[in-house]
Amino acid sequence: MTDAAVKRPARVVVADDQTVVREGIVMLLGLLPGIEVVGAAGDGEEAVRLVSEVDPDVVLMDLRMPRCDGVEATRRIRAEHPRTQVVVLTTFADDDSLFPALRAGARGYLTKDAGGEEILRAVESVLSGDAGLSPSIQRRLLERLSEPGPAVPPPPSQPPDGLTAREAEVLVLIAEGLSNHEIARKLHVSTATVKTHINNLFAKIGSKDRAQAVRYAYGKGLVRPPAD
């Protein structure tokens, strides 16, 4: 990758129905290095249209908007423009908001008390293939996964679905919330090697993203919920 490609700013669209909030976010992003705001939308319909017109790298998406809410807009954007990532930026962190947004294809989820550095980290994370979740959202996701549910089968003696031992190890580390860089450091391999393992294991288990991979790991007993 060339130096110019590395330094190209992330092209971002902001979608929020409250004018003051939307303009404030645009102003904040304008102060952050590595981000270029290429459009702002007042509802989900406008966000979908803007993505078609300007082809951004990331959409910062509010959830509660008229005409087309953030979840539906996220679903449409991810289906029609899979290169564009969505980071939810909302007031709401309840389950009824969080999980539909993640299922719709959002790769990041922040609440509006996030600072500029946290937003920048989330944008950089989703563009590198990681999840851009605030610490509070990560905790809620882990709490939800650890809530009582169907009995978890014992860990298999051999990795399921043709996974190699190393791929299973990488999957467990993903489920523990580690980024690609953190996995690489832990396993003493390159980030490129980690990405290769992730691509291979995603293909074998039929996963489209890390959230689906985490659910798979818990469902197959590769990871157990933490004890109370």
Describe the 3D structure.
InterPro entries: CheY-like_superfamily, NreC/VraR/RcsB-like_REC, Sig_transdc_resp-reg_receiver, Tscrpt_reg_LuxR_C, WalR-like. Residues 156-221 form the HTH luxR-type domain. The modification 4-aspartylphosphate is found at residue 62. Residues 11-127 form the Response regulatory domain. This is Response regulator transcription factor. With 228 residues, the chain is of the alpha/beta class. 35% of the residues are buried. It has a six-stranded parallel sheet with strand order 2-1-3-4-5-6, sandwiched between helices. The protein has helices spanning 3-7, 19-30, 44-54, 70-80, 95-104, 116-127, 135-146, 165-175, 180-187, 191-205, 210-219, and strands at 10-15, 35-41, 58-61, 85-90, 108-111, 132-133. It contains eleven helices and six strands.
Describe how the helices and strands are arranged.
Elements: H1 3-7, E1 10-15, H2 19-30, E2 35-41, H3 44-54, E3 58-61, H4 70-80, E4 85-90, H5 95-104, E5 108-111, H6 116-127, E6 132-133, H7 135-146, H8 165-175, H9 180-187, H10 191-205, H11 210-219
Parallel strand pairs: 1-2, 1-3, 3-4, 4-5, 5-6
Helix pairs in contact: 3-4, 4-5, 8-10, 8-11, 9-10
